[in-house]
Specification:
Two copies of one chain form a homodimer. Helix content of chain A is about 35%, strand content about 20%. In chain A, the strands form five sheets. A seven-stranded antiparallel β-sheet of chain A has the order 18-15-17-16-20-21-19, sandwiched between helices. The first copy, chain A, is globular. Chain A has 21 helices and 21 strands. Chain A is an alpha+beta fold and about 625 residues long. The relative contact order of chain A is 0.12. Chains A and B meet through strand 12, helix 12, strand 19, strand 21 and helix 21 of A and strand 12, helix 12, strand 19, strand 21 and helix 21 of B.
């Protein structure tokens, strides 16, 4: 029998793969979790799907590609060019390199901003503004012998001292640097994390896990009162897919992987997790678990709690993990839910087994114009009731519709702009939609082609019952494409005295309209009371649907020229907005989490007994408050 | 304008309803949770959907309708009549009053049992065998002033001293009564429970919540070492639907309601929860929450964790509840998951807001015959992969297929039996299926008629790829109808030296066949080793499908004639079976829970740190172990 060498190596590869998977399933917890094992990190020399270099979006030195005082990549920003046109620089996005003709006018009109009134950022980070590190010599000594990379570099430390709350970025732009980590460490694998945690417990060092740095809850802010050495545990280099299990449709992944890498790598094998939070370019798997993240396409793929099959977290008491990867269990309270949402207060998530799905055969965008927001919400509610929501369905209010228009790139042909004009005429004059009331829903369908077309028909039929007009794939696609560039806009605004933030809630269906109306009005009222000189932007979007309610996302921004303490004003207005949300039956957060920003409402959110439970878990797991970011409690 | 009185009262009714719902939403927790409020129970005089008498399936005196030493209603049982035919007595079930011609032969053949060898139960409960109650006079004194009904009656106490584990029923049949509660109390509402818990804490009384009494984890067994007064908190009278919220599709329900009442009452308004555990005639909402229950149609309606929107639980530290009914939140670890699965160790669940759905327009049963179990499993796995599972899909092995046949009631016409014979010929001779290898899947589809027919086609097409033959609606319907009578069979078996139990697990897809084969073989081997004289029944069923695995349900029964300690033999075999399950990657339990029966495996299931977390919550919530059923930890 002639040997089929490719067949043989295929069989060998499959056999090795099965062996790796079964080993992974069977691997018990190491008995010696409390001893420092000077073992080689499993990464070196072991066969995995991803080589070290291949998988890395984010280098150890984040400053090589990321901004120090704003969102995202250094090579990408909005700016007004010499001709006074808005432009999106760089090459990474579909919008990159394009002129956005209507943006300037919208910006100036909406905020009363002007090219004359500039509020530029400090050009570079002044390392002198960074406190010298508080060193824990004993910790450092032992750390060195582990071979785990570390740094005391001021820039490395500043990069990991913050998330993306307004006040954090504003301070950086002013060159102000508060309490920052004293050290950064880069574990390469679970075992490295075990060593770091053991050393931290031994030497009473404060650990703050750092994933993608995209927290918008002040979760990453270093507590100013922390006198111990603060070590930022940067998981970005711990980012491999350890195995893909095609029989059970799961993948076992190191928690430092960022969303775009996870999807890209899985795609190479024909799979995806389908978890696509707006932050997915930079946010990490461990961060999603710690904050109970939600993704754009949760209608198909689920939120993080639906995606997670198995979690490993390293705590001061040892490693916590279930012994079984069964799909659903009744073995007491679900300990995964003690881990999810713990926001870095209990340990470091190191490895996660997640569900994967075959990549969808077909994708189709769509959009619907509604005469007004109320009809749009009623439509979304009906879609939810019939349990036929597409992969994603989002309804923006009239202000966001206009905002979306302002972000249209320069059209390449007269024909396209003629078409646009035709559509506008049809919608407004012919169908009688009031341009100051109409709103738009964007849709994304995924699945088998036939099913998608059927599904699409069902949804558009429902939309028609609520006065909705199908408005084409382009508008839908553009809406979703803008998702990843919106965050860059704030940095543009901050160049011209405009500050702002997004915040979100989840709310029962019967309170959606109240919340949208009341919170937007409250924002406007509070701004006025606090002396804001210009009308704020106060807008909302229904961004997820559920059986019993929806997720509502607010944007709030204003021109702060003339205010002596703009961040303080901002914070007061945000606080009032959250009070308004809670008073209208909305939750403290749908997916951003609590961090330090929303701690004050935790007790009323979970009740005294709930707080006591959370505190008792914290006191047991981490009695010395090694994981001392002071989030949640 | 003529007044439309019915319109007016309609508006009034709707307005009152909205007011009730909003009041329910807004009702804060009472500040004075720590003081005994001598307030009238909200039930009296308040308007609700259900009058006290109307809603009650289960009276305070359970003995009026339920067996004292077996499953279910007193008026219903299997027996062999004078002609030696198997019969199902009573009038409550479709099978009631019918002869089951093939059952006797199957029973005798399968177990080597015989009508000559009887092992009858003690005919009545001997109250003398019940220890006099340990009274806590101070507690009793204060309890009397609350007006909450209570009892020291021996029979009342015995009824609440057990669930339905084999050893519990076996002991009762022998007239043996161990530690039983010293008192039974029947709270009528949440406030009553608050009073009871406060008094218990004050006077150090042990409380054991009692819902439907259907625990199969020894969860209800009173710990023999408990020297304090044990009070059974029977929630069966706390069973109203407090409001239905049609806008958000939720219902707020008292936790003592049993499944059949909940569905029946919701049906009157055109709704359902769709939660249909096999125990639903008797099990309670509070019990589902406490044990993480799963229902037959979870593919549409979800398991209990998907159904619960809001929970209220009374603990020694006070009432725990979230402030918001938002659909999904990120506010730290989800405290609902500290409550779900707590199995009566932390408090009493009193009120739950659940999702409801409009009743399905259309239901259709179905069945598929597969040449063998492997093909059947592969089909179910493919259905799960395509995410097109019906409301329910269950695959029984060959032994259960034969068992199912033995349970066929006497056919009413020659034509039906002729058809049956034709089908049998077609399947076995014509299609070549081996009757000793073939197995059957039963299906239930629900939804809009057109969608159901489409869905049905998709599933049968998949089944065909795995050699599956559609075998008609009747077989499907009968399979599901038998669900509620199966539990009565054990009592019949126990009349003739046959004892048995069901147990379950959840397991990743790639281990399903291993687990089924290995566990069944292990059971048979262990029985042989332990001296069981007859071949045991060792059979399994894949009873739920998930993305990453399945729920597998085992039946195990044997003829214990000739054994001196049959229950001990049974327990050893069950224990070995669970070890085999765990060794094959299965979980400790999919939905039955841990109770006291499976405590020994908890530590390895959730890890040391997981155990520590659970213990720390227990120590905080209930430092005096008032909720002292000793489950889980």
């Amino acid at each position: 029998m002639a040997s089929n060498s490719s067949g043989g190596s295929d069989r060998q590869r499959v056999a090795q793969q099965r062996l790796r998977i079964i080993t992974g399933h069977l691997q018990g917890r190491e008995e010696g979790d409390s001893t420092i094992i000077a073992a080689e990190c499993k990464a070196e020399g072991s066969q995995t799907y991803v080589s070290r270099e291949e998988g890395k979006t984010v280098p150890r030195r984040r400053q090589e590609i990321m901004k120090w005082n704003g969102w995202g990549y250094s090579d990408t920003k909005f700016l007004f060019n010499k001709k006074g046109q808005a432009e999106f620089t760089g090459k990474r996005y579909r919008l990159s390199g394009m002129i956005i003709p209507a943006l300037k006018e919208w910006f100036e009109g909406t905020f009363g901003a002007s090219m004359q009134h500039k509020s530029p950022a400090a050009p570079v980070l002044n390392s002198g503004a960074v406190q010298p590190p508080t060193l824990n010599e004993a910790f450092l000594e032992e750390l060195k012998s582990t071979g785990i990379p570390f740094s005391h570099d001021a820039e490395d430390r500043v990069y990991r001292a913050h998330g993306h709350c307004l006040h954090e970025i504003f301070a950086l732009r002013e060159g102000k640097v508060g309490r920052v980590p004293d050290m950064v460490v880069w574990p390469n694998c679970h075992d490295d994390v075990v060593k770091i945690v053991e050393l931290a417990c031994k030497h009473d060092v404060c650990l703050i896990p750092y994933g993608g740095g995209t927290s918008v809850s002040s979760g990453l802010e270093c507590p100013t009162e922390e006198t111990r050495c603060i070590v930022s545990v940067d998981t970005s280099q711990m980012n491999r897919i350890l195995w893909i299990d095609e029989k059970n449709l799961t993948a076992h992944v190191e928690a430092g992987i960022v969303g775009q890498d996870l999807e890209r790598l899985l795609n190479e094998s024909g799979y995806c997790t389908g978890h696509e939070p707006d932050s997915m370019e930079f946010s990490s798997l461990g961060g999603w678990v710690a904050t109970r993240a939600s993704g754009m396409k949760k209608n198909i793929y689920g939120n993080i709690e639906d995606l997670v099959v198995h979690v490993k977290m390293v705590t001061p008491q040892g490693v916590i993990e279930k012994s079984c990867r069964g799909p659903r269990m009744s073995t007491g309270p679900d300990i995964h839910h003690f881990i999810m949402g713990s926001e870095g207060t209990l340990g470091v998530v190191t490895e996660v087994t997640m569900k994967i799905r075959p990549m969808p055969e077909y994708q189709k965008y769509g959009s619907v114009v509604f005469p007004n927001f109320e009809q749009g919400v009623a439509c979304l509610r009906e879609v939810a009731k019939q349990r036929c929501a597409p992969a994603s369905i989002r309804l923006m209010d009239n202000e966001q519709f206009k905002f979306g228009h302002a972000l249209k790139p320069q059209v390449s042909s007269m024909f396209t702009s003629f078409l646009d004009g035709l559509k506008k005429f049809y919608v407004t004059k012919f169908k009688g939609f009031d341009p100051d009331r109409l709103c738009v829903a964007t849709l994304l369908f995924e699945g088998g082609r036939e099913k998608v077309l059927q599904h699409e028909k069902q949804v558009y039929d429902i939309a028609a019952k609520f006065g909705g007009l199908a408005a084409g794939e382009d508008n839908g696609q553009r809406g979703y494409m803008l998702t990843f560039v919106i965050a860059y806009l704030r940095d543009l605004g901050m160049e011209y005295y405009v500050i702002g933030e997004s915040f979100e809630t989840s709310v029962p269906w019967d309170r959606v309209l109240d919340i949208c109306r009341n919170v937007k009005a409250r924002i406007i009222g509070e701004c006025k009371n606090k002396g804001v000189q210009f009308q704020p932007l106060s807008t909302c979007r229904v961004t997820q649907t559920y059986d019993t309610g929806a997720c509502v996302y607010f944007y709030f921004a204003f021109n702060y020229r003339g205010l002596s303490d703009p961040v303080h004003v901002y914070e007061q207005v945000e606080r009032a907005a959250r009070e308004e949300i809670l008073a209208n039956g909305g939750s403290l957060s749908h997916h951003h989490g609590v961090g330090k920003l929303r701690k004050e409402w935790m007790r009323e959110t979970v009740s005294n007994v709930g707080m006591g439970m959370l505190q008792s878990v914290k006191d047991y797991v981490d009695p010395k408050n090694i994981f001392g970011n002071r989030n949640l409690l």
